[in-house]
Amino acid sequence: MTVTPVKPAHTEPERPVRRRWRAWLLEGLSEQSARHPGPHGTPPEEHEGHSWWRVMCLTGVDYFSTLGYQPGIAALAAGLLSPLATLVLIALTLLGALPVYRRVARESPHGEGSIAMLERLLPWWAGKLFVLVLLGFAATDFMITITLSAADASAHVVENPFAPSWMRHANVWITLLLLAGLGAVFLKGFREAIRVAVLLVGVYLVLNLVVLATAVWHVAAGPEVVGDWWRSLTTDYSSPFAMIGVALLVFPRLALGMSGFETGVAVMPQIRGGTGDTYDNPAGRVRDTRRLLTTAALFMSCFLLVSSLATTFLIPAEEFEKGGEANGRALAYLAHRYLGEVFGTVYDVSTIAILWFAGASALAGLLNLVPRFLPRYGMAPEWTRAVRPLVLLFMAVSVTITILFDADVDAQGGAYATGVLVLILSASFSATIAARHRGHRAATAGFAVISAVFAYTLVTNVIERPDGLKIASFFIAGILLSSLGSRISRSFELRAVNVTFDEGAERLIDEVASTGPLRIIANEPDERDEAAYREKEYSQREETHIPDGSPVLFLEVTVQDSSDFTADLNVTGEHRHGARILRVEGPGVPNTIAAVLMELRNRTDRVPHAYFNWTEGHPLSHLLRFLVFGDGEVAPVTREVLRRAEPDLSRRPRIHVG
Predict the structure, then answer these.
(1) In this structure, are strands 579-586 and 553-559 parallel, antiparallel, or unpaired?
(2) 441, 218 in Cβ contact below 8 A?
(3) CA-based max dimension of the chain
(4) Which helix (H) or strand (E) holds 370?
(5) In the chain, what are the domain boundaries?
(6) Rounded CA Rg of the chain
(7) Other C-beta atoms lying within 10 Å of the C-beta of residue 656
(8) What is the pLDDT of residues 524-564, one digit of tens each?
(9) Cross-strand pairs, 572
(10) What are residue 558's DSSP bridge partners?
């Protein structure tokens, strides 16, 4: 039985227009706790999903779009050592991030990602708060991906030689228009986003192949540029060891080149997988996700290495500086210089399009993460399980960030790198723990080393660009405050997904119901001996005037984890010392009692009566105990939960307190 609040009888019917708008906005809203959240939850059986290479294009709009600015970042950070620093980045990608996320795909095949893996390590409220902090960094990564990519796309617009003069200082407005277009695609539907991503990635990679092949041909035709670069390099650095040392020091600034791995795992449920896949064993989906991650990493590594060499050899160093023609658009510079303004403009349009849609990958990650965690914790309204309201919310946040940062790419880069590195570090740490639990010693040692490298990279990045951590702290604070506020406001809901009775409980309920209304005595399951049950029944009959001869049921609730919000309630029945007892585990005593009373009413078609004792103590301390530990002053909270769940007084279970 699914427990849902009953709509008040006096509520006026919604107007047709408002009803249609609400139905469209909340389309796809799921009442299940974790099976089908967001657009990337586990698809229903009739949904076939997509080929792995199509889903790769969705994550690739983020991952591959970094070619638009990564070579320029590498040149600014490492100068002549840009190719060597890029090699270090490629090594860390193929030997670090790729193995980590292949392990994450195996351990969380339904798109939960490393955050869910770490959630299992910490019990009670500590685990929930830890997840909220990680969600803050994830929100930083994904939201800044959306705004930074759109801002970089607008920069390509205004830098194009054919752009009209009135666009030269319209970065903010262009960025806002691009964000509006991105939101419109997701409001239309997720399948449309996949189609757009496949087209954009295909065209963009082909154009990049043309640009890089042309650059390689020019380097081969004029090999003196390689000699000039090597002479400058040996002049500036005394030995190869010095070059390697400097490259190791500067490569953390290139960390943006590893973005996209987390969303690659997040959208796993959209991959078709194998015909024999089941929910408990989606082996085909895991295999295809690993194929997706490996293919994307290999493609990107090749593109990064060749682009770094080409831009270092062919572009003067001063052009990479702020205000230079290659600043933030190194490959576009090569396209215009060697292939003409027409092809360069086509390349610009492709770059603008993929940078604009790079936010789709990040938005997909957000639409997957939020419904998976926050509503389940009671830390977000139920409407956050629906896609369209979340899209509107995230677009509003994106607009705010764009205006605050004046659509400046450099101002957002630190926050972007911080979010990316925190997620990769959390993934590598969770992979280490998972390998250790499975007894894989070699894998454990390898993932531990990878975790140490990413920890160094993160610390270095934060020291050099502390603004990233400051921006992330705002996201973390926002998520913590809004989540805790939502949890408090929703604490008086029933919070039960299903209530079921075993055979013993059904037998006891039928015995008592055959004599009249059900009379339930709430009892704390402390000392469960004969004297305790007799004393409890005697005091309740004396204080609350239970009719003599009327049989009673004891209801005992055990709180296993009060930090959980919703749960399936399984009620068991037993005879003990002559007492009829119903036992159940739930996340909160009052909410669980209220849910059981409502189901007893539905099952017997009679309004049950519940009997309580007042609890000594200050009301505020009891409220805090209820919010944190799930108990406190049970009687008035149970009554309030029932009042909100059942507006009809004649149908509402009765509460008696003595």
Answers:
(1) parallel
(2) no
(3) 106
(4) helix 330-377
(5) 48-272+279-487, 497-655
(6) 30
(7) 17
(8) 887 778 888 988 888 888 888 888 888 999 999 999 888 88
(9) 583
(10) 585
